[in-house]
Specification:
24% of the residues lie in helices and 28% in strands. The longest helix has 13 residues, at 120-132. The protein has helices spanning 120-132, 137-149, 164-176, 187-193; strands spanning 4-6, 17-29, 39-46, 49-54, 59-64, 68-74, 81-86, 109-114. By secondary structure, it is an alpha+beta fold. The protein is built from four helices and eight strands; from the N terminus they run ββββββββαααα. The N and C termini lie far apart (79 Å). An eight-stranded antiparallel beta sheet has the order 1-5-4-3-2-8-7-6.
Length: 194
């Protein structure tokens, strides 16, 4: 399955842009056909998608958040960057894919390297906030299934579910403790306090 290549700057007029980062280099691995070096352009973290566009290359990308399975700040590279890994099998139409791998197993990596490395935290936070707007439907369904399985339990206040020993303990506790009425101590408690 492919992700989108742009041949024109994205129309952001109807987008909610959470972060814009000018002068950012993008490195795509495996590389795009004929592009082995980072491409300089502008990064737009919008609520709907992540966009990158280079006016000098007259090209860019648009990636849906559910396709991004990992995003992080990487400081271990030659240049600090925002590292994104796409879901296996997601790639660009003109990407140079390894011939010895099945397309469904190929993992595409994106490295966004802003000239201003102080912007990494802001980009990361914007990506995190926007990704949260697009939860993984499959993961959510699995979580709901797990929650449904664990919903059945015995309420210990239901005396029918208690064993004889537990019922005797409950009767003893009820005889020893008297809960306050409407948040106020009962008359007996007032006398004990004097």
């Amino acid at each position: 399955m492919t992700v989108t290549l742009l041949s024109a700057a994205p129309d952001l007029s109807d987008q909610v842009v959470r972060h814009t980062q000018k002068d950012t280099d993008l490195l795509v691995l495996p590389p795009l056909a004929g592009v082995n070096e980072p491409i300089r352009g502008d990064l737009y973290v919008c609520e709907s998608q992540v966009y990158f566009y280079s006016t000098s290359a007259n090209s860019g990308i648009a990636v849906d958040y559910p396709d991004i399975i990992i995003h992080a700040i990487s400081r271990r590279e030659e240049r600090p960057c925002i590292y994104c890994q796409l879901e296996a099998g997601r790639f660009f139409p003109n990407q140079q894919l390894p011939e010895d791998e099945d397309e469904q197993d190929i993992v595409t990596e994106l490295k966004f390297m802003p000239e201003d490395t102080g912007a990494l935290e802001g980009i990361y936070m914007a990506l995190s906030d926007c990704a949260a707007l697009h939860p993984d439907e499959e993961f959510m369904a699995e979580q709901e299934a797990l929650e449904d399985e664990s919903e059945f339990f015995a309420d210990p206040s239901d005396e029918a579910e208690l064993t004889e020993v537990q019922q005797a303990a409950l009767r003893h506790l009820e005889s020893v403790f008297q809960p306050p009425m409407n948040g106020k101590p009962q008359e007996d408690e007032k006398m004990d306090e004097q």
